[in-house]
Every structure is written in C-alpha cells, then in structure tokens.
Design brief:
single chain; Rossmann fold; 276 residues
Amino acid sequence: MPSARLRVVILSIEGTNCDRELAVALSSLGARTEVVLLSQLGTAGVAAGRRRRLDQYDALFLPGGFSGGDYVRAGAIMAARVRAAIGPDLEEFVRSGRLVGGICNGFQVATELGLLPGRPGGRLGPAEAALVANDSGRFECRPTFVAFAGGRFPPLAGVPAGERYLFPSAHGEGKLVLGGDAPARRKALEAAGQVLFRWVAPDGGAPTYPWNPNGSDGDIAGLTNPEGNVFGLMPHPERSFFREQAPDWTRTGGPRGFGDGQRFLSAVLAHAARGG
C-alpha cells in the first residue's frame, strides 16, 4: 500500500463530478487525499484556513466530469483557468517529477494545457492535440477494456504489453485528434513510448465499435508526457476500483474485493510514494 504520507490533491471547479469518487479510491490506498477548489490555490478572497499551495502535495489529479460545462471545447475552460491561476506553479510541479494524472475530462484538460502529449520540461503551451466528439455522435457510457501499450510509464514498469484492464467509459468527446501530420505524430508518440493504453475488445483483440467507443485513431485511450510523470486516460479506473462495481458482480456470486482500477491506481500511487 502506498505510504500514508503521500499527499494527493484532486483539483475541482464547477462541473467536475468524479472528484469524490476518485478521492474514495485514492484514500482507500492510504494516500492523504484532498479535493481542492482551484480558487483555494489563490490568495485573493480566500480565508487563510482554506488556502492551499500546489507545492504542499506529492501528486495532482484532474478528475472527470464536465468542467465549465464543457463549453468552447471539453476541458478548455478549466485549462484556461488553471493556466491563469497556477500556470507557473504547475510547470514547476511537473518539472519536479511529481505525478499529474488526468482522467476523462481531466485528460481533456491536460491536453488543452499542452501537458499532453507534452513538451520537454513540463512547459505549458498551445494545445497540440484535442479530444473531440465521438464518431457515434453520442455520449458513450458502458464497461470498456483497454490494454497497456507497453510504453515508458514508470508505474507500470514490469507489466507486459497487452495487459488488459476493465475501465468503464463515460464520455461524449473522447476521440483523440493530433495536430499537424497526424499519422506521423502518432508514430512518433508510439516510438517514444508515450501511448499508455489502447482500446481493445473483451478478448484483448482489435476493437470495433463499441469497444473503441469514440473512433480514436490507433485505438489510443491514454497518453503520457515524454518524461512519464503526466498521464491521461479517457476511461475511469475509479469506477472499477471495487469488485462490487463490476458489471458481472451479481452474476458471479457477488465476491467482494477489488477490480482493475485498484490494480492500476495502486501502481500509480506506489510509484509516486517512492518519489517518482
């Protein structure tokens, strides 16, 4: 179990709605987890007892939801506000090697900030990719499967490529689109080990809809930055953390315990607790 000394912040604004769910999962792994409003990381108009600093924490998570109502583009409003409120602090946080994880809407926010696919040194900048409307034109919400792509993601060092996880999906804008020469960009990310997860069929094979729920090129479901300390993924590991959340739980006699989300988040926090 990750060290109880690990301090984790889940950053929230209006519209995020998976922060508490994620907090339960991370706290169950022993981390000291706190949901913090972006406004608390400032000083103007914030009571001293509610003020927080980003450098108080060892890891940062951007949770799922519909931050800022997903107006303009999914994640764009929260990204703009994060950049304005704590941009230099966030760059320093990433440069220090501390973990930043974006889940679903959080992946969209990290992409809008330019943290993913990312620039060397954790610099923020214009978005070089976007997560756009699913090919189906619908909000897709169901159990889905991903496989570890075998990239350079330190928390999963030693995990074989192709290792499969059940993480539920719940998004309307999850299709990853890379800027510029998209096929060349995708090959470069693959060569650099920055593809974290790919959508797969239940048997681990190549997916068709709905197993790739959004039509993302190359079946990409998650990315990391070049250094591997920032990651983003579209499906929700916190929604498969407990065995009771599994779609087949009642059909299999209702065994208690943990699901694939626990396996993944435990590895992530264990790595963060070791100091990256």
